[in-house]
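lol forgot to send this yesterday, sorry. C-alpha cells for the thing we talked abt
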C-alpha cells in the first residue's frame, strides 16, 4: 500500500514542518556555502511576512555581497550606490513616511565608504531599520582588510595580519552609533546556530516594531563568517568566529530605549 502513495499524499499542510516564506524568491542563493547572508535574508523576510507588511516595505541594498539581496528578497527593493543606502533610505522614508524602510549592508560598505551616511542617518534619528552584516572583511571584492578586520587578522591586503600601529583599530561602529540620541534600539546578534537565529529574528522584529511606533532608528548588527575570504571551511569559519569575533564584538542588546 505504501508503494502506491503519491507525493501529493505526503506533502500536505499538516505534514509540513517548515516551508520557505514566499517573501523570498525561488532563485537559488549564490552566496558561498556556509555564508550567513542566506539565513539573515530568511529571517528578515519571515518578520515582514509575520507582520503582514509586505506591500508596505521597501528594502535598500548597496554594493558588496549585500547587493544580491534584491535578487532574493521578494519585496520592493532599491539598489543604492556604495555606502549610500542610509541616504537613499532617508529619502524614501521621507517621501513615503507610511512605508517600512530598511537597509541591508555589509561592513565594508556601512563602516567604510558609508560611514558618513551611517552616522548622520543615525544622528538624525531617521525612522528606519539598518541591518548590518559584519564578517570583518571585504567578501565580494577579494578578501581585503575592512574597518572591522580584527588585530592580527590576515586578509589579502594584510597578509601578515592587521597591524593596529599602522592600520588603526577595528571600528566598533555599532557601539559608536548607540551613543547617538536618534538611535532607539541597537542589538548585535549572529545566525550560526538555531538559538542565535531565533535571537536575531527577535531583534529584527523588534526593530520593525520600533519603526511602526515611530521611535527612531533601529540598528541590528549580525556578526557572520566569510569562509571564502577567511580561507576556511564553513565549520572552521564558524568556530573561528566564535573564538575571535565574538570576544571583540560581543553579542546582545546594546541599547533599548523604551520611550523616545
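and heres what i got for the seq, position by position
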Amino acid at each position: 500500500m505504501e508503494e502506491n502513495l503519491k507525493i501529493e499524499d505526503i506533502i500536505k499542510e499538516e505534514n509540513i514542518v517548515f516551508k520557505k516564506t514566499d517573501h523570498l524568491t525561488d532563485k537559488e542563493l549564490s552566496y558561498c556555502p556556509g555564508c550567513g547572508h542566506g539565513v539573515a535574508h530568511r529571517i528578515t523576510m519571515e518578520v515582514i511576512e509575520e507582520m503582514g507588511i509586505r506591500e508596505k516595505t521597501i528594502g535598500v541594498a548597496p554594493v558588496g555581497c549585500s547587493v544580491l539581496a534584491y535578487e532574493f528578497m521578494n519585496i520592493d527593493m532599491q539598489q543604492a550606490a556604495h555606502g549610500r543606502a542610509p541616504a537613499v533610505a532617508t529619502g524614501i522614508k521621507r517621501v513615503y513616511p507610511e512605508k517600512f524602510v530598511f537597509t541591508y549592508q555589509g561592513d565594508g560598505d556601512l563602516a567604510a565608504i558609508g560611514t558618513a551616511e551611517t552616522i548622520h542617518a543615525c544622528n538624525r534619528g531617521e525612522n528606519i531599520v539598518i541591518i548590518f552584516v559584519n564578517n570583518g572583511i571585504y567578501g565580494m571584492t577579494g578578501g581585503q582588510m575592512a574597518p572591522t578586520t580584527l588585530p592580527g587578522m590576515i586578509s589579502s591586503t594584510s597578509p601578515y595580519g592587521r597591524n593596529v600601529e599602522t592600520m588603526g583599530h577595528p571600528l566598533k561602529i555599532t557601539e559608536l552609533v548607540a551613543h547617538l540620541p536618534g538611535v532607539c534600539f541597537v542589538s548585535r546578534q549572529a545566525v550560526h546556530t538555531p538559538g542565535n537565529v531565533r535571537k536575531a529574528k527577535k531583534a529584527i522584529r523588534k526593530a520593525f516594531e520600533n519603526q511602526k511606533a515611530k521611535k527612531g532608528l533601529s540598528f541590528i548588527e549580525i556578526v557572520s563568517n566569510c569562509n571564502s575570504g577567511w580561507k576556511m571551511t564553513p565549520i572552521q569559519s564558524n568556530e573561528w568566529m566564535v573564538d575571535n569575533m565574538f570576544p571583540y564584538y560581543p553579542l546582545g542588546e546594546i541599547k533599548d530605549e523604551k520611550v523616545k
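The chain has eleven helices and nine strands. anyway ping me if u want another try
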